[in-house]
Amino acid sequence: MYNKGQFAKGHTPWTKGRSGIHLSLATEFQVGHRSVGGVKFEKGHPPTLGFSGRKHSEITKQKMSLSAKARGFTLEQRRKITEALKGRIASEEHKAKMALIMQGNQYRLGFLHSKETRQEMSRSRLGVGNGNWRGGTSFFESKLKSEIEILKAK
């Protein structure tokens, strides 16, 4: 039998007999000491995690902004995501949860698009821009073709 990543028989692990990471007794329990996990213990204050209470410099903010703008999906990735999400239907339970979340939402209520914008949106949904566009074929056209074929067969 080959080794599957386990240690060989008789091997003593380097952690044997150790029970944790400890500092000297003089410094381990000082007020304000940050433990290994980054949790701060101060009398009268709850523990804080990570970057809480600190601020990024302007240079760091600019770097983070550039990094965020560089991220995104390629056109191929977007197409794959679109295909994967097509045909999904929200359950009644999910719809009820979303309705509950949206209660009290006041964002853009009463906003009206201008007449020019509405016309532009309307034009964008004509023909190929419409989700139901099927290359110029229609129900009546296919019905007419089938009736012509029936008449020719007679």
Structure, briefly:
The chain has 154 residues and is mostly helical. It contains six helices and no strands.
Describe what you observe in this structure.
The protein is an all-alpha fold and 154 residues long. The chain has a domain at 28-70. The protein has six helices and no strands. The mean pLDDT is 79.
Note the beta-strand portion.
under 5%
SSE order, one letter for each helix or strand: HHHHHH
Give the helix/strand class. mainly alpha
Q: Averaged pLDDT, please?
A: 79
Largest sheet: none
The count of strands amounts to: 0
Tell me the radius of gyration.
32 Å
The separation of the N and C termini measures 78 Å
What ranges have pLDDT less than 50 throughout 5 or more consecutive residues?
none
Shape, principal axes of CA atoms: elongated
Question: What portion of residues is helical?
Answer: 40-55%
Number of discrete helical segments: 6
What tags apply to this protein structure?
42% helix; elongated; 154 residues; 6 helices; mainly alpha
